[in-house]
Amino acid sequence: MPKVKTKSGAKKRFSLTGTGKIKRKHAFKSHILTKKTTKQKRNLTHTGLVSSADMDRVKLMLQI
Fold first, then answer.
1. What residues contact 51, with CB distance under 8 A and at least 6 apart?
2. Of the candidates 18, 20, 27, which has an alpha carbon nearest to the alpha carbon of residue 48?
3. What pTM, to 2 d.p., does this model score?
4. Quick one: DSSP state of residue 18?
5. How far apart are CA 27 and CA 3, in angstroms?
6. Of 11, 9, 34, 6, nearest in space to 22 by CA
7. Is the Cβ–Cβ distance between 14 and 63 less than 8 Å?
8. Does residue 10 sit in helix, strand or coil?
9. Are 42 and 24 in contact (CB under 8 A)?
10. Where are the alpha helices (DSSP H) in the chain?
């Protein structure tokens, strides 16, 4: 049987922490930044963790 490939979009967007949680970046930080406030852009910079509701879906995409 062939190996199951991970979703290439998911492996670019998520990374694992040492304890097995999944890190993610915030959306809305890539373009059209002129109309967003400095505070809003600064708060979108920090990474977050994937919520428990989405954890099963993301693990399925990453094959972990």
1. none
2. 27
3. 0.80
4. T
5. 31
6. 11
7. no
8. helix
9. no
10. 8-13, 38-45, 52-62
Residue type for 9, please? G
Whether the CB-CB separation of 23 and 48 falls below 8 Å is answered with yes
Q: Which residue has the tokens 């990453």?
A: 62
Cα-based distances in Å from 53 to 18, 34, 49, 58: 20, 32, 11, 10
The 10s digit of each residue's pLDDT in 11-63 is: 999 999 999 999 999 999 999 999 999 999 999 999 999 999 999 999 999 99
- Give yes or no for residue 1 having a pLDDT over 90: no
